[in-house]
Specification:
The chain has about 325 residues and is of the alpha/beta class. It is built from 13 helices and eleven strands. The chain folds into two domains: about 210 residues, P-loop containing nucleotide triphosphate hydrolases (Rossmann fold), CATH 3.40.50.300; about 90 residues, Magnesium chelatase subunit I, C-Terminal domain (Helicase, Ruva Protein, domain 3, Orthogonal Bundle), CATH 1.10.8. About 45% of the residues lie in helices and about 15% in strands. Helix 2 crosses helix 10.
Length: about 325
């Protein structure tokens, strides 16, 4: 698939989602970026902001198999992955796949499940496979997890550990709508839910083709060095205990490549890195104890680092 075709594909999906979701153009761009880059998204915001609606709109737009999993404290890993059960008629064990064997997964309120259940997603999200009773089952592409969590409800929740957070390419906040967007939303949902009328504008094979093609976007050595310098700055910041890992550097490079395509370019510029820094790196930074006590914000720290590290000014187009 050509890069301009990837942009057209994403534009069509974005327009289709906008039939349901009012505003949030920047959020939709980030979610589409994560999808094409082959990553996963953690949507975090207070209840009622449209996190679930966003996930469903995307799944229906690309005609992919979709499962919504409500995470609760009593949810077991086998409830996600499936089990081998004894079939009395056949006289043998038969594998019954769980909801994880879908292409778009909505992990609703993921922080309500126990760490044991949360960890069952690690292999699925990173390696696109599930191992059950010693047998490995491959997951069908595209495999895209959209997890949601509410930051305001702490009682009865289990915060995601750093290893689990690192499996998400991005952490995105929905945010409140403006007054004008609120008026449009109330008018649109007055008679019926537009989600029920949404039609697919792409198929899963197109998404896989785009995932295999976006790497053609050129990333100059200067931009790569800029990413590495920013990552190194996080490792030496006074308020940060653990900075960005090599996986985080690769993640932002891939996100920048897709972001460049959405902006109509076949090359990455430093502004792409600045746009992706907070959603890709914000949840990967671990602060020191005294910084956490002071309520240090990852967005503020990353903004400081972006201002401190000089951006390259060369010609970033491929020769």
């Amino acid at each position: 698939m050509k890069l301009e075709e990837i942009k057209g594909l994403c534009d069509n999906i974005k327009d289709n989602i906008s039939r349901v979701i009012v505003g949030k153009s920047d959020v939709v761009d980030l979610v589409l970026t994560a999808l094409i880059a082959g990553g996963h998204v953690l949507l975090e915001d207070v209840p009622g902001m449209g996190k679930t609606m966003m996930a469903k709109s995307l799944a229906y737009s690309i005609n992919a198999t979709f499962k919504r999993i409500q995470f609760t404290p009593d949810l077991l890993p086998s409830d996600l992955t499936g089990i081998n059960f004894y079939n009395q008629k056949l006289g043998e064990f038969v594998f019954r796949p769980g909801p994880i064997f879908s292409q778009v997964i909505l992990a609703d309120e993921i922080n309500r499940a126990t760490p044991r259940t949360q960890s069952s997603l690690l292999e699925c999200m990173e390696e696109r496979q599930v191992t059950i009773d010693g047998e490995t089952h491959l997951l069908k592409r595209p495999f895209f997890v959209i997890a949601t969590q509410n930051p305001v409800e702490i009682q009865g929740t289990f915060p995601l550990p750093e290893a689990q957070l690192d499996r998400f390419l991005m952490k995105v906040h929905m945010g409140y709508p403006t007054l004008e967007e609120g008026k449009v939303m109330m008018s649109r949902f007055n008679d019926n839910n537009p989600l029920f009328d949404i039609k697919p504008v792409a198929d899963a094979e197109c998404i896989v083709d785009a995932q295999n093609s976006y790497s053609a976007v050129f990333v100059s050595d200067a931009v790569k060095e800029y990413i590495l310098n920013l990552a190194d700055a996080t490792r030496h910041h006074k308020d940060i205990e653990l900075g960005i890992s090599p996986r985080g550097c690769l993640a932002i490079m891939k996100a920048c490549q897709v972001w460049a395509v959405l902006k109509g370019r076949d090359y990455v510029i430093p502004d792409d890195v600045k746009e992706m820094a907070v959603p890709v790196w914000g949840h990967r930074i671990i602060f020191r104890g005294n910084a956490r006590v002071r309520g240090t914000d990852s967005q503020k720290v990353i903004s400081e680092i972006l201002q401190a590290v000089p951006a390259p000014t060369e010609d970033f187009m491929a020769l």
